[in-house]
Amino acid sequence: MSKKYKEIPQWVWISFFVLALGKIALTNSQPVFAIGWNSHDDKLFLSLADSLLHGQWLGDYNNLTLAKGSFYPIWIALNSLLGMPLLTSQQLLYAFSCLMFVLALRPLKLKPMILLLVYALLLFNPISYANGPSTRVIREGIYASETLLVVAGFMALFLRWNWEMKSVVRWSMISGFSLAALWITREEGIWILPTVFFLTVVPAFWIFKNRLENRFKRLALLALPFGLLIISISLISALNFYHYGIFTPVEYKQKDFLSAYGALTRVKHNSWQPDIPVPAETRMRIYKVSPAFAELKPYLEGDIGKAWSSNSVFWRPATEEWVADQQNLEISGGWFMWALRDAAAAAGHYTSGEAAATYYRRLASEVNTAIAQGKLEAARGVKATMTPLWHKEYLSPLLKAMAKSAVFMINFREFDPRPSYSIGNDSQLALFRDITRDKLSQSPKMRVTGWAVNSESPLDITIHTADGKILDSSIQREQSPDVYPHFQSLPWASEARFSITTTKLTGENLYLSLKNNHGSVEKIPLDGAIKRFQSAKTQGNIEAVSTVTNNSLAQNLGIRYLESIGRIYGLILPPFVILSLVYYFIFSLKMFRSLNNFMIWVISSAILGAIFIRIFIVSFIHVSSFPGVNTLYLSPAYPLMLAFVSVMMSKITNSLGRL
């Protein structure tokens, strides 16, 4: 059946383009926040992308090769081949996802101006240019876009359930590829499935009920996205099997690793703590009954365990906060999985994917057998999972964390468009520059200018800390026609002026060091206490100590504009979110009585359900594993929140228009 809707006016298309171009121009002021040493996240994705660029799939096999989904490294590699700055390509993807969502709404016959407002509201979502999710080389840079694309695709299929086949085919392909990309980007893609299934089952039922023409083809198109998902997962798994001997898209979903993790975490603790999956006392008991786990003892109780313990933070229910506590080598939930894999690698079990799987299979078997024989007590049945065992003590903090997450999101808390300063040495940061094709944020510099003359020789000028550490710096010698006439007997006085620049260190007491060829040293504090200095052999003047930033005026202006837009969202959105929720519940009651506007109710419920599930998962992680209530882990829920508000406010506007 062919369905017609009013074409979008040309002025709206032009407005879409201008808004996207403006967003790109503003976000172009943001450099990449590089964390050069972060081998488990930022640096890992770049290393994997570098291997792809060299035709080596994901590179040599180790405990990190298959630890995370491969789509983001693939995205980075393709972006690098195209020569496009990484942050720009991610902003283009987000703009595209916003456009697809607006186009998906067309069957609702919204006014062109409403469509434009929906697009603008989604496009300038503050978290799409927030420091962290959008400035680091991290999966969240594309994950929110993928989420919005998945919802838009399946929503479009739902709204076009009885439309001409050509339109359905396009949206089915978009849905399938976006779902596959999302699934292969992160490991917890299951959170979006209830929304996807809801938007699929309802039109499938209608197609059967109404006996539409080509109904089996239509049902096949509804199933096509899931087929594309399975094909994509199988393709990635096959490539991993070919290169590493293990058929899995990512090892955190591999059954042997999950079985081993599940076996370790099912052992009952002597004293349960909400955020520690395998306490030190439990590890000691498992070592005694599992030779496989005992192989890891030198590492889990040694440097590897100490390192992950020192990075761990622990939940304190009494104060409802996370604190550092390094006693007893306890490793919290967010870090134990990494400690386990690092220890297994140190013990020599990561020579290949099959070798690692064989080891984890043996570990799981030994622990589960020990439990079956009564050598260890179990807190739950055999289960291949990384999900913490539910305890009733989680309920109260979980509900509080969910409320905290909702308030956190609605108010856009912790939003900041200013990228943090990049961290790492030159060799570490070179990988970021080369592959992202983007500029990196840099720490502000301190520049000291002045002049100095020594009566015995030219001076070696450096900057050092109070404990004598010399800082890397660059120095420029300058002609000094104003100084030289006073020291004409000293040829080097003709270049007595200097400008020395080094990294600015907050909270450090820094000194200017003046050393002549005979080893004589003058030390001048740079706190402003001394300007003019003179000793028996050296005299000079510190004329200025200034801070130098690498941002241009345009960059600073762009970031200020982004900051202002984010503040406007934080002020205006909360009442609209509350109004949308209230209207949704009133609208739902009316809909169930009359079944009017059922299609709008379905899509708004599907979006709201996805938000709720994301908040639930993040909140449960927050109270059971590691601090999760932040813009990073909630990032895919923000565009959904704006989408929900858009749908509800559009419905309210249409209702008012009929009055």
TrEMBL record:
<feature type="transmembrane region" description="Helical">
    <location>
        <begin position="190"/>
        <end position="208"/>
    </location>
</feature>
<feature type="transmembrane region" description="Helical">
    <location>
        <begin position="72"/>
        <end position="105"/>
    </location>
</feature>
<feature type="transmembrane region" description="Helical">
    <location>
        <begin position="112"/>
        <end position="130"/>
    </location>
</feature>
<keyword id="KW-0812">Transmembrane</keyword>
<protein>
    <submittedName>
        <fullName>Uncharacterized protein</fullName>
    </submittedName>
</protein>
<keyword id="KW-1133">Transmembrane helix</keyword>
<feature type="transmembrane region" description="Helical">
    <location>
        <begin position="598"/>
        <end position="621"/>
    </location>
</feature>
<feature type="transmembrane region" description="Helical">
    <location>
        <begin position="168"/>
        <end position="184"/>
    </location>
</feature>
<feature type="transmembrane region" description="Helical">
    <location>
        <begin position="142"/>
        <end position="161"/>
    </location>
</feature>
<feature type="transmembrane region" description="Helical">
    <location>
        <begin position="633"/>
        <end position="650"/>
    </location>
</feature>
<feature type="transmembrane region" description="Helical">
    <location>
        <begin position="220"/>
        <end position="242"/>
    </location>
</feature>
<feature type="transmembrane region" description="Helical">
    <location>
        <begin position="568"/>
        <end position="586"/>
    </location>
</feature>
<keyword id="KW-0472">Membrane</keyword>
